[in-house]
Amino acid sequence: MSSITDTLSNLLGQTAFLNLTWGNYLMILVAFVFLYLAIRHGFEPLLLVPIAFGMLLVNIYPDIMSQPYTDAAGIEHAGGLLHYFYLMDEWSILPSLIFMGVGAMTDFGPLIANPKSFLLGAAAQLGIYMAYFLAIFMGFNGKAAAAISIIGGADGPTSIFLAGKLGQTALMGPIAVAAYSYMSLVPIIQPPIMKLFTTEKERKIKMEQLRPVSKLEKILFPVIITVVVCLILPSTAPLIGMLMLGNLFRECGVVKQLTETASNALMYIVVILLGTSVGASTSAEAFLKLDTLKIVALGLVAFAVGTAGGVLLGKVMCKLTHGKINPLIGSAGVSAVPMAARVSQKVGAEADPTNFLLMHAMGPNVAGVIGTAVAAGTFMAIFGV
């Protein structure tokens, strides 16, 4: 009888029920909310589903993120499964591969056809620099503030990349989750800001059709951007280089297999690995801290200011061009491709169902990807990384 009792006691002791804290239950609830938003409402499910499931796993079974160790008897024990996924985040492997996939999937033609889009992409980086100084004011050191501020670009891969390069791995989990959460919530966060800073008349502005872009221009663009940006900021090479390599695959027309792999199979494999590992960095012990709340708040402020910055410059350009530019496309200057461009299209269509802004918004959207990477490279140069 005692052996049966001992067996049942051991089995009970091995369950998660006795080991979970209130914080674990809270994070499990957050994971359920993320899953609901992704599945029921379709908020970027490719990002939120793996992130939410990683969050669920680590708060039920924390050892899934444990590091390798050697016990007292000298026996080596392997780390948890998602620990090895997470190492690829810290080593900047997965963020760089994500950029290659984005490049292979994205048409840079709208940016080439309308180079003024670079200005809108630059204006949308205003939130990054404002968040940097605000983070320092809130008590973060310079490197931590820089890593946090990149959330304002709504660019998860760049946020992870910069946090790793600046040695802020302790903050990488909250930074990555905040960045990817705001990327997923672009359709909720941006429209009120866009409507606040524009009039209905401005939202109804129809833009002229973009000029055709030749194949030669599309081939030369990624090569020239790589050379120029990487000569000025060599530390951006892993991100800018992979982004432009993916786009060169797409545009050169002679490596169809590489284009398909980079934009489909490889991209989705990387999203699974990165999403689950990012979610698994949110154990209650690591995530439920005051600094985490500060990071989430700073990220939201940065993202809101970045959106407003793009829209406000769009208004200025609208005035200067006598109404030829719809200010809504400025909101797409953040780095969430192509979600931000879709939101510009949606808000414009609400004002006038015949308005088509998507391709015009893709110019600032692509410029925002480049701009966020340049901002990250600037911070690395400042701190000598």
From TrEMBL:
Its main location: membrane. It holds the Pfam family OAD_beta. The keyword Ribonucleoprotein does not apply. Keywords: Cell membrane, Ion transport, Membrane, Sodium, Sodium transport, Translocase, Transmembrane, Transmembrane helix, Transport. InterPro entries: OadB_MmdB. The chain crosses the membrane at residues 20-39, 46-64, 84-106, 118-140, 175-198, 219-245, 265-288, 295-314, 366-384. The keyword Transport applies. It is a multi-pass membrane protein. It is found in: Cell membrane. This is Sodium ion-translocating decarboxylase subunit beta.
